[in-house]
Amino acid sequence: MIAGGFHVILDHNVKQQHMDQTLTGFGTVFVFLLLGIFFVVAGFITARLLRPSRPNPEKNSTYECGEPAVGSAWVKFNIRFYVVALIFIIFDVEVVFLFPWATVFKSLGVFALVEVLIFAFILILGLVYAWVKGDLDWVRPTPNIPKMPELPCRDSGRANG
């Protein structure tokens, strides 16, 4: 009985020494953070030392998709770029939600099929709404805004007469 109790005390001391030598969860995160910063800084320093440095006006100029830059960078962009990108992202993310459902489709049953059909119907409804609204048209016709006819000014007749 004494030997068994002694064994428990020894086992507890061994565990205590082992716990003192290991890092906590925060220590592990801190070590990985330091290693990440080190590798990024080392990569930048290595690239700076190895790359050639021959600047010229053409290399220092603004590059935009192979087209020469014209004018200021503070120009108004057409909102259609953002609308089309947002519509793409919305439908792309929604399709990602369908993948996990498709992997376990057989085990879910008819109820899950009805749910995903409702989900697809809502997606199609959103696509139809964007289409009818004209957000998917890349080139929209310019609106024809009628102008009010100019009325003759009363003062112009008095100045001549």
What does this structure look like?
- The structure is a single chain.
- 0% of the residues are buried.
- This protein is 68% helix and 2% strand.
- It contains 7 helices and 2 strands.
- Strand 1 and strand 2 form a beta hairpin.
- A two-stranded antiparallel ribbon has the order 1-2.
- It folds into 2 domains: 57 residues, no CATH class; 57 residues, NADH:ubiquinone/plastoquinone oxidoreductase, chain 3 (Methane Monooxygenase Hydroxylase, Chain G, domain 1, Up-down Bundle).
- With 161 residues, it is mostly helical.
- Helix 4 packs antiparallel against helix 6.
- The chain is flat, with a radius of gyration of 35 Å.
- The mean pLDDT is 77.
| Beta content | under 5%
Low-pLDDT segments: none
Please indicate the count of domains: 2
Q: pLDDT average, as an integer? A: 77
Described by strand count, sense and barrel closure, the largest sheet is:
2 strands, antiparallel
CA-based shape: flat
Q: Radius of gyration from the CA trace?
A: 35 Å
Q: Which strand order does the major sheet show?
A: 1-2
Roughly what percent helix?
55-70%
Structural class, by secondary structure, is mainly alpha
Terminus-to-terminus distance: 131 Å
The beta-strand count equals 2
- Total helices: the number is 7
**Order of helical and strand elements:** HHHEEHHHH
